[in-house]
């Protein structure tokens, strides 16, 4: 198996309304980062709401409210070096501003997301 650094891009579209889908993208991104790959996540459509301050601390990823909070998975990803980007139009869709969100690397538009995808070795969507 090659030890070359690969670029991974995870694009998330689903948000708090389907919390059970929220942990996997962070878990996989963390794993790729711990394998010394360059990993970015783009949050668009409803996924931007996952990054609103206070949401991840309250959101459990297992249906029924038991289990780990989403914040646990976000913290792991950040600690591993995963970069978070927010798609600009999704801010308005989720009634928020960049200041309403946890720390990110910034806001990206459609052309930037397309360029990120073109430059990536692996693109995974959720």
From TrEMBL:
InterPro entries the record matches: DsrEFH-like, Sulphur_relay_DsrE/F-like
Organism (species): Sulfobacillus thermosulfidooxidans
Name by which UniProt lists this protein: Sulfur reduction protein DsrE
Superkingdom of the organism of origin: Bacteria
